[in-house]
Amino acid sequence: MIDFFLSSDAIMALLTLTFLEIILGIDNIVFISIIANKLPEHQQSKATKIGLILAMVQRVVLLFFVSFLVGLKEPFYTFNSSWLQIAISWQAVILFVGGLFLIYKSTSEIHEKVEHPNHDQNQLNQKKLNSLSQGLVQILIIDFIFSIDSILTAVGMTNGLHPNNNYTLVLMIIAVVISIIIMIAFANPIREFIKNHPSMQILGLAFLILIGFMLITEAAHLSHTKFFGNEVGAIPKGYLYFAIAFSLFIEFLNFRITKNTKKSQG
Prior knowledge:
Layout: H1 2-5, H2 8-36, H3 41-70, E1 75-80, E2 84-89, H4 90-115, H5 119-125, H6 132-158, H7 165-185, H8 187-196, H9 199-222, E3 226-227, E4 230-231, H10 237-265
Antiparallel strand pairs: 1-2, 2-3, 3-4
Helix pairs in contact: 2-3, 2-6, 2-7, 2-9, 2-10, 3-6, 3-7, 4-6, 4-9, 6-9, 9-10
């Protein structure tokens, strides 16, 4: 196990996944803060921390559940024709549906943030809270909604890294725990950074589209899908890491150029 966690693939997956979990958690932090701010002042900090801890617990529980389903590799249905051959397993179904969900959710989120940036916040602001328990119920619902794409992202980033699913499960749990700890410790600075650089969140959502596409091709590969005799191959994780690293590098250059431009104008 130690050899796996010290391997370059595992380290890259852990760093990339932790970064994406933090980016995905920004909206979670924002919505938790909106709910917490409607409570008495002495309960707001407590509600925020409890909300993030509940988010971590939900993600870990869902990871165990999804990892169990992904581990069901035996085909339960086989289809053969002159142009298509496929052996469908529950693993392939989860990956395929998860990939479609990530692509749909990410595209919808990008559209929502560009066209109606305050739509969800305004809806939450309209709801009144009378007690901490009411706030925690709303936070639990919000956490569950955001846990779905978080878990699917984790599966997409780690699936196939090791034959033993328990190793990748531990890796996903570590990434989730680290990201939640960072969000608890630096919630306000992270929120301010994303507020000042909204392109980072759009970039994170764009990464999810890549991961969604990779999950779909992975599902086809694990189902031994053949189109006209040509089997669908797996996409190496290294391509995904390179695309994310390259995009972040370009975004970093953009930050530097913008900052230097403001200095020269000032």
